[in-house]
Amino acid sequence: MAISFEGQVAVVTGAGAGLGRAYALDLARRGAKVVVNDLGGDPHGQGADAAPARKVCDEIIAAGGTAVPNFDSVATYEGGYNIVKTALDNFGRLDIVICNAGILRDVAFHNMSEEDWDKVFAVHVKGTFSVLRHAWPVFRQQAYGRVVLTTSSSGIYGQFGQANYGAAKTAMLGLMNVLKQEGAKYNVMVNTIAPVAGTRLTQTVMPPEMVERLKPEYVVPAVVYMVSKECQDSGLIIEAGAGNFNRAAIVKGPGIQPGLGELKDAEWVQANWEKICSLEGAEPMWRTGQTLKAYLAEKAAQKQG
Ligand SMILES: NC(=O)c1ccc[n+]([C@@H]2O[C@H](COP(=O)([O-])OP(=O)(O)OC[C@H]3O[C@@H](n4cnc5c(N)ncnc54)[C@H](O)[C@@H]3O)[C@@H](O)[C@H]2O)c1
After folding, report:
1. Which candidate, 6, 187, 246, 222, places its Cα nearest to that of 98?
2. Assuming Cys at both sites, which of 74, 81, 105, 147 could form a disulfide with 116, CB separation 3.0 to 4.6 Å?
3. What mean pLDDT is predicted for residues 206-229?
């Protein structure tokens, strides 16, 4: 059955261009009322312009959809409040938040300034917090919400020259891992997209024909599914783009559990390094408590015995 967003309201941050624009257009085409947020600055986070958000709203309205623009920066707490308020004031509810706004300030770590670090964290990390923190009480109260955060292969796997960006994008995984638990009881699903697409952000690193071919539209289906009521999963990292859809995960290897009987030393670790590092039989985890699995199993066995 077709996935519909009829009667639902979505906020898409950074929706004036690139991936965010493509998400907003597809959600609106499927019936969602959309808040098109975009500050309209340059790829390094300088300046502001209302034109990109307005233009995407005009496109949505011309295609028969419903949208309002919002020009706040996600990087301030007040901006996050205004973005959520724009949804509530105009449409009376909020069901979906896609935290997509982003900038880059690439430079090798030994040349990275404090400003390069802070600006990237302000948009990606504080920006995600600012919007979600204001959306969260709405989701809890109505016992429904769908969230997609945006990470990057740069954070999951690493990319030279992106220490600030990679660290900020990995923060999304930490945030998701906690919110998937806090939202579960309220039917709030929080997943993360790791996209790849030819956009303004990637045109500095991709050749022009790649930018042209890797259209944001190849990422859209994964994000749109994850913010639909049909999606009942939470806490997943999905990579999409360039004709691929796959899950990425932080997994825990089986390791060795010598128990608490005897303290081990560094030589013991050295001797067992291969087994400790092996990912054979590795599993994704749901919460931190599971890291104490072996200890808790030992205690339970002692109690029974
Ligand atoms: N394109 C890729 O291959 C790729 C890969 C990995 C991750 N990402 C992530 O995907 C997201 C979208 O990137 P894109 O490639 O579409 O780039 P883009 O530059 O085309 O779009 C990003 C949008 O975010 C807006 N924005 C920036 N700072 C903002 C702020 N403070 N408040 C509100 N809006 C702001 C920009 O004005 C811009 O329109 C980003 O989070 C990016 O880091 C992209």
Report:
1. 222
2. 105
3. 96
